[in-house]
Amino acid sequence: MNSFFKQKRLCLVGATGLTGSCLIEQAVTRSDLRIVGVARREVVLPEGARMEMLLAEPASWADAIAAANAHVFVCALGTTWRKAGGDDAAFRSVDLDLVLSCARAAKEAGIDHAIVLSSVGADMASRNRYLQVKGEMEYALGRLSFRRLDILRPGLLRGARGEDRRPAERFAMLASPVIDLLLHGSWRRFRSIRVETLADAIFALAKEKPRGRFVHEFDSLHRAIRRAGG
User: Fold this and answer.
1) Does the active-site annotation cover 139?
2) What predicted TM-score, i.e. pTM, was given to this entire model?
3) Is 130 a catalytic residue?
């Protein structure tokens, strides 16, 4: 049987962000996985990319997700308080409402495995609004009853974000090699992680079969890569 029939199709929403862009770049050299991206605007694809990009407004993403005919739903959606203009409703509309509507569409399309990007520290009871919304999102995803749900909780993502990188993040990235050395025990989960490493973990998890809900932080993300032989 040739590699085409062994390919696992990944429906990716959030293809234009840091993680989504990295997934697309990393997939160029892989024949075992094929990405079908869903976005509302054109994406500049890397040379050699073998993938499909379905363009639609978010209101029509359910149809695009169904058309992707994928095995795994990968959600790398997310915004920031700054991009949302400090508006709580605008922030929730992306990081909670849009994520959930896409996940429901994936479930209704027959996709039984979801991999969703969250954040370290996500907790519905958190006093931090960002982490509270991420916690709400995780809880709601769990109620959709996917055969397998992988929640990813990375710390600071290290990668080229261009001008979109906020000053505080730029400083954190510069300081992260030193800070990471100080994070041990239960604090290890807050260590920074390269976006390329996160992409490798997503590809590894996409091929795992056990049922259930799994939460992956720093060490668990690296273990997933090792299980895949990476």
Assistant:
1) no
2) 0.90
3) yes
